[in-house]
Amino acid sequence: MVNIFLRAAACRDRLLLFAMLLWCTALHAAGSLGMSVADTADGVTVTAVHAQGPAARAGVQVGDVILALQAQAVTSAAQLAVAVRASPAQDELELKISRAGWTRTLRLVAATTSTPAAPETVASAEQGEWEQRADRHAYAGQFADAVAAYQKALAAGPPRASIYHGLGWNYYNLARYEEADQAFRRALELDPDNPNTLLTMGTTQMQLGRTEAAQGYWQKASALDPQGEIGNIARTNLAKTAYNAQLKGGGGSVAGRSDGLKAIVAVGDFQVKAAKATTEIGDGLREMLHTALHNSGYFIVVERMDLKGLAAEQTLSHSRMARPESALPESRMDIAEIMVYAAVTEFEPQAKSANWVNVMPRMPLAVSQNYNESHMALDMRVVDVASGRVLATQRIPGLAIAMKASLSTVIPGTRLGIPVGLSVYRNTPMELAIRDCIQKAVMYVINNTPEDYYRHR
Prior knowledge:
Blueprint: E1 5-6, H1 11-25, E2 35-40, E3 43-49, H2 54-58, E4 65-69, E5 72-73, H3 77-86, E6 92-99, E7 102-109, H4 125-139, H5 143-155, H6 161-173, H7 177-190, H8 195-207, H9 211-224, H10 229-247, E8 263-272, H11 279-295, E9 299-301, H12 307-317, E10 338-359, E11 365-384, E12 390-410, E13 417-419, H13 429-448
């Protein structure tokens, strides 16, 4: 029996859906997704997610609109039921959903049993209605109302991971991080391997200042969803945290994969094509990318710009000038499997700027302000060394804005200002734009390196 319970959105649809359920029950089932759906004005909408089921583990939430199954558009709940029934048992299903205006692709495996979920994990009708109402409040940005509705949903039935997850996320949006932490912990007690909850729990830990705990949750989410979007977001968060720690002097490799595996990469030439950039700027950017890739913890970075120097040192170790015990073993050079190339295509230290001065009436004072916007861009390529194939290519922009304000005294009878030292800026905007661009470039390389390259320690 297909274990997807369809709920009619209106009375006129109930007889049709009831007939469809009878028809599906008479057939041998391939599995269950562990969720309830209904035809609504928005499309095929998830109305309930069964705790511990495939849908819950994949991150499906009440209110999600199902757009496609296995790249085939889903236009009705009945069609979805037929498609799930026709899928081979234990096959991984690709489910495309829409949530709060954006789309996401989730992967899940249908259960092979036709036995309904245990009573304690199935929401009552009242509980499901409160959860749907809470989701609507959340999507509308009414977070306090959503919290109240989720609490009523918990009071109307057994504890469910999806309700605690929604409660935690709305506490987070209200900046009530301690309460969000408690709600997510309860959700993980009920469903410990839900990548979506692990991801949001990590984000909550960062708000509480618990960086190591956040990294632990993100690493687990990445391991549970190595190919999906949740895992991709988790890896991006890990890379960004590592990079920020490096900027603050955290040193060394901060993040990396939970399994410790790395890919071997080398950084190739940086071509300089922007009119306002120089070769020295390209060399400096290459060195920054080299360091950032190493410190991300995802890569073994090998040197390729000074191979002559490395070869000379190895030759020297075998010469009569070196001590006998200093001879370096041969055939030990690591070979890069991926090359990262870049071209500096935009470099504008002062893309936009403005200055203005306001003299205060009847006072010997003037206020001046400077606005400066800088931006740059790198065209990145990730190339497989063995085949020469381009694995990924992307334009990576970097942008920074700086403001400077000054308070001056005005000499009577003139318009000359004498600064008295009031400023509200720290760094040049071009430096910030460069750092922004390099950080984005590292995350791009991490997320676009195929999984099978991560196999070295």
